[in-house]
Amino acid sequence: MPRPRLQAVLLVDGYNVIGACSSLQKTRDRDGLEVSRHELIEALVNYSASEDLETRIIFDAHYQDGQSNSETITPKLSIHYTNFGQTADTYIEKLCASLRHEVDGVRYRVIVATSDRAQQLTVVGYGAEWMSAQKLLDAVEATTCRRRKQHRTNKQSSSRFLVNSLDPRSQQLLAQWRKGLS
Question: In the chain, how many domains are there?
């Protein structure tokens, strides 16, 4: 009997990833931090949905003066801003520690995306997996390319009939509907 697939949680050190990506750095330098954050969020929305990951992007509050807050963007992606004076590293470490019993109980697979070496060693000690910022960016790009290719393939039909461009389940439902079987 196959083992059930673990729910994966991806924790992203937002500013670390922005700093590791040349295009996001250029956006940050040209248009500001808010725009580069938005671009990262948009890229991870699609990636999280495609890869079925619960993604949490963590941003340090040292750029903002205020309390921590969270914002749910999609059912698969949320953004967390730390308390003033708290780093994303400490936030991620605490989250890994709190999820550790879930990891040991084989309920969650926790992946931390950061290029911070000290952070890497700490989160691995909590049982989480580590992914470099560059590896995350490569994975996001590969997923984007794969989805574009699938979209182009799905749009092309080998026949002049529209029904042939539908997936088999939709074709079956359409045939039942035509026959009045609904």
Answer: 1
Structural domain span for residue 73 = 7-178
Q: For tokens 């060693």, what's the residue?
A: 121
Distances (CA, A) of 78 to 55, 105, 139, 156, 180: 6, 24, 19, 35, 44
2 assigned to some structural domain = no
- Evaluate whether residue 138 is within a structural domain: yes
Segment 109-124 mean pLDDT: 89
Q: Which run of H or of E encompasses 118?
A: helix 117-125
Q: Would residue 1 count as lying in a domain?
A: no
Residue 121 lies inside a defined structural domain of this protein: yes
pLDDT in tens, 85-102: 888 888 898 888 887 765
DSSP secondary-structure letter at 6? P
pTM: 0.75
